[in-house]
Write a structure and sequence with these properties.
This is Sugar phosphate permease. By secondary structure, this protein is mainly alpha-helical. 78% of the residues lie in helices and 1% in strands. A two-stranded antiparallel ribbon has the order 1-2. α2 runs parallel beside α12, α8 packs antiparallel against α9 and α14 runs antiparallel to α15. The longest helix is centred in the middle third of the chain and has 34 residues.
Length: 490
């Protein structure tokens, strides 16, 4: 669907809808604010550890606890992927997108107002539950409104906001914390980034709501919001119960993260047995399942560097938080090029023999090799150069960000239009296992070894393993709209 006219059922006056390119850039803004909200937690936690602030100062394994806090956000974010995609298929993807940004802005602001570890964790989980409605509906809306020949490019342009969000969080964390020290005092300075970014997200939700009304007509949030709140309440109780149980019996942080992954797997299996998943997007489909599982490595890499990159650079080079944030921004900023270029290459590849799948394999292998080189450089260099780390992180991020729109476009090729919200929900639900596990397991490895190299080697192994999974994708698409593209899997 492209730019055109629609007619209101109560009036013959035609209503001009925004173009698909305008949609890309509005959703670009959505990705920017959504990722800034979640990425700000990593630099804030690092600052709290370095300054022995509040609940982080008393932790026996602070990096593991900090990673667990990030992982619990993704537990909430992950569990609402599939339900929110199904709600979008039922009530409209534009409606779900309008709701989730009001939710995310309010929850981020409240995260900066509360006191205590348990309530802070609960608010990050609630934020994740609300933001979980964004991904599957954003992807489905772009595919629905974009010509098939530009599908992957549109997915890539919109998600470039992710890179901007990570970059903004890394660059502005330190200045906001310093501002917080002057305004709130050292003990409460950590609140300032949440208050600022939450306020900006809430302001952007007004823009999102206005645009979605122009695109899809009146927004009626009542029924989908009630359904999303009901699902989120159940998931929040389950996640916090697991966190409380692990904390009460003294289980290590990695055990808590593992239990969250098991919880997600149980939910998928229950929905499958109840017939809640469409046949083409469920775990019964071999090709899409391989893509979903391979995507775990994409999110693992994004959140190894998205959450801990400031700590990796400051620890290796013994630099200040401000300097480390600027160097870490090289990795996040690479998405500004990687996402749209990856999408553009994927669209071109779909028209030639090599196909989307094979481009995806090549980009993934190159990414894995670069991650491996970064780990080797950190391990065997006594005083790593900030500039060399910046270059390696930029090159790694370039290919990491290119593979995501390739994988998503390949998924869209293999499912029908009526199931795309659910398909993207399933893609991100399974992929978010990487986002959930990466911060905490990487933090545990860092605490155990005293270095970030082992955590980086683990990431490299997962990335190479995901490339091998893509070789198993054999079916050619698309099945949806009769386009002539192919995956190139033959």
């Amino acid at each position: 669907m492209t730019q055109g006219h629609t007619t209101s059922p109560t009036s013959p006056t035609p209503r001009r809808t925004p173009s698909y390119r305008t949609l890309w850039f509005v959703l670009f803004g959505g990705w920017l604010f959504a990722y800034a909200d979640r990425a700000i937690t990593g630099p804030v936690v690092t600052w709290m550890i370095d300054n022995d602030i509040d609940f982080m100062g008393a932790a026996q394994n602070p990096h593991a606890l900090g990673g667990l806090i990030g992982s619990l956000f993704f537990a909430g974010y992950m569990l609402t992927q599939l339900p929110s995609g199904r709600l979008g298929d039922r009530y409209g993807h534009a409606t779900l997108l309008s709701v989730c940004f009001v939710w995310a802005g309010l929850a981020t602001i409240v995260s900066g107002l509360i006191t205590g570890l348990i309530t802070f964790v609960a608010l990050r989980v609630i934020t994740g539950l609300g933001e979980g409605a964004f991904y599957s509906n954003d992807r489905a809306l772009i595919v629905a409104h974009t010509p098939a020949r530009l599908r992957s490019l549109g997915l890539g342009v919109a998600i470039t906001g992710l890179a901007f969000g990570l970059t903004v969080a890394n660059i502005f964390a330190a200045p906001l914390l310093n501002f917080g020290v002057s305004m709130l005092g050292k003990d409460d300075a950590w609140r300032m980034p949440f208050l600022v970014f939450g306020g900006l997200t809430l302001a952007f939700s007004v823009v999102m709501w206005w645009f979605m009304r122009r695109l899809a007509g009146p927004i009626r949030p009542g029924p989908p919001l009630r359904n999303l709140m009901a699902v989120s309440a159940v998931f929040c109780v389950l996640i916090m119960a697991l966190f409380w149980l692990c904390d009460s019996v003294g289980l290590p942080e990695w055990a808590s993260a593992t239990m969250q992954v098991v919880l997600a797997a149980c939910i998928v299996l229950v929905m499958r047995r109840r017939g809640s998943l469409g046949a083409a997007v469920s775990l019964k489909d071999r090709d899409t399942t391989l893509i979903y599982v391979a995507a775990i490595a994409i999110l693992w890499s994004i959140w190894l560097f998205g959450y801990w990159s400031v700590a990796i650079v400051s620890s290796a080079a013994h630099s200040s938080l401000t300097t480390a944030g600027l160097i870490a921004a090289f990795n996040a900023g690479a998405g500004i090029i990687g996402f749209p270029v990856g999408g553009w290459l994927s669209d071109k590849a779909s028209r030639y023999r090599m196909g989307r799948r094979n481009y995806l394999i090549v980009a993934t292998v190159v990414q894995g090799v670069l991650v491996l080189l970064f780990g080797i450089y950190l391990q065997f260099t006594e005083m790593p150069s900030l500039w060399v780390m910046g270059v390696l992180m930029f090159c790694t991020g370039l290919f990491l960000n290119a593979v995501q729109p390739m994988s998503q476009a390949l998924t869209a090729d293999l499912v029908g239009p009526e199931e795309r919200g659910s398909a993207f929900g399933m893609w991100n639900l399974i992929a978010e296992v990487g986002a959930l596990a990466s911060p905490v397991f990487s933090g545990v490895v860092r605490d155990a070894t005293g270095s970030w190299s082992a955590a980086i080697y683990l990431d490299a192994a997962l990335v190479i393993g995901s490339a091998l999974l893509y070789f198993g994708v054999r079916r050619s698409g698309p099945v949806a709209d009769g386009a002539t593209t192919a995956t190139g899997a033959a």
